[in-house]
Amino acid sequence: MPAPTFGPIPPSLWDDNPPVKSSTAQQNLRALNQYIRGHRGHAHGSWGYTVLRTAYTPESDVLVPVALDGLKRYVHWWCHHGRFPAFGALCEEQRVDFSEPNDELFRRFYLEVVEDREGLAHLDGGGGGGDGVANGDERFAALGDYFRRRVVAGVADTGDCPEDKPRFCVCLVLDSESVASLVRLPEQPLRCAADLAEKREFLAAGQAGLWILEADYREEQDSDDEDYYGPDDTYRGWMRIGVPEIMGSWFSRLQRDSAPYFWHEQKEQGSVVYCHQSRTRVVTPSK
Known about the structure:
Blueprint lengths: L22 H15 L12 E4 L4 H24 L6 H7 L5 H8 L4 E4 L1 H4 L12 H20 L17 E5 L1 H7 L13 H10 L3 E6 L23 E5 L2 H9 L7 E8 L2 E8 L9
Parallel strand pairs: 1-2, 1-3
Antiparallel strand pairs: 3-4, 4-5, 6-7
Helix pairs in contact: 1-4, 2-4, 2-7
């Protein structure tokens, strides 16, 4: 099936005119519309990632479609999440009823799943560094090489400046651990939470995730920038990402030219570590 393509986004979905819009959807649509004006190629007008499937077992053959459906369902929920601020009576008072921008944002979400048992099954691993940091590094280095070779081979039309396109610089990795996590995602209602406890329940329910791999990542060793915090060896270009962060991670890539530093949140063994990372642009090769 060919990748979907989309035209310009109607200004009525992202401008500041009435009706009131969810600010996150409005900002993301505005950024996406600006982006697609200057870029052509594969899946034009969409946002999202390539997904490298590394889990290939009889069980995963059954569960992968369920996992991907759950992931998409939760991305849909997060596209609408901003319409329901706070909880209880305050949420009912401030909720945004105009949902067309949120629907359009999700309509343009596209995941391209790469299934290659011969080329990817041996890189399943079940988790990053689960068998030791070196093992995790080697595994994700190999996945990065696979992804870059795919881009260079011209499997998809990258158009001009593929290094500016998140879809050709970053990918998601769906391994056995990720599948087991995503299939547990429950159904979530699109409405105001009745109270704080239910709001927390809504937010906690979507914390399943998979791996994100920046195939163009390279740590910068030195910088004269006074805001540079120095290299942090807790981040190596790949990490676990929760479903709620998928949208934010993609749109943050559109700001690389203006924001050379990014915050990453890594969750390892139940703890939360905030890593302030420096990076330099590594041009994605073209044919």
